[in-house]
Design a protein that fits this description.
- With 163 residues, the chain is α/β, with parallel strands linked by helices.
- It is built from 6 helices and 5 strands.
- The protein has one domain: Response regulator (Rossmann fold, 3-Layer(aba) Sandwich).
- Helix 3 runs parallel beside helix 4.
- The longest helix has 18 residues.
Amino acid sequence: MEKELSIRDLNFRRASVLIVEDDDDIWTITRIALRKELPEIKLERAATYEQALTYVTNCVTNDLPLPKLIIQDLYMPCREDGLKLLTAIRTQLAAGAWPQLPILVMSSSADPVDIQSCYRHGASSFVVKLGSIREQSGIYQAIRTFWWETSVLPLTEPTPALP
């Protein structure tokens, strides 16, 4: 009899996170905090709108595994670019039958207009960035607990058709 995989096993299986962050300093803090809190996860970075969209499009069109979670900056460098990217990623994912893939927007902005705009453009969650590695680690610890240990993440790799 085949062993039944736990939620944790499924979530961590070939797991990666796409981080869309244009600021090198924030990327460094994010990378350090994520490696501490989620060492099992492969980290991918896109520094621009074009890189992020190319990454997702390549996964969708070539049946490559998608990341389990996308963490995206809002101001890249301007708000409109971040919102445009959210819409474009959601469009690409829907074209490949992956509209449910979680996209978490992280921003230093706590402006209610920014938050609502992100949700309207397809964000699954919105988190206000904190400055230090210690503060960021707390955020990523919560992300680990919720997304990897509590939730069941969608399958992000091609699977055989169900009978």
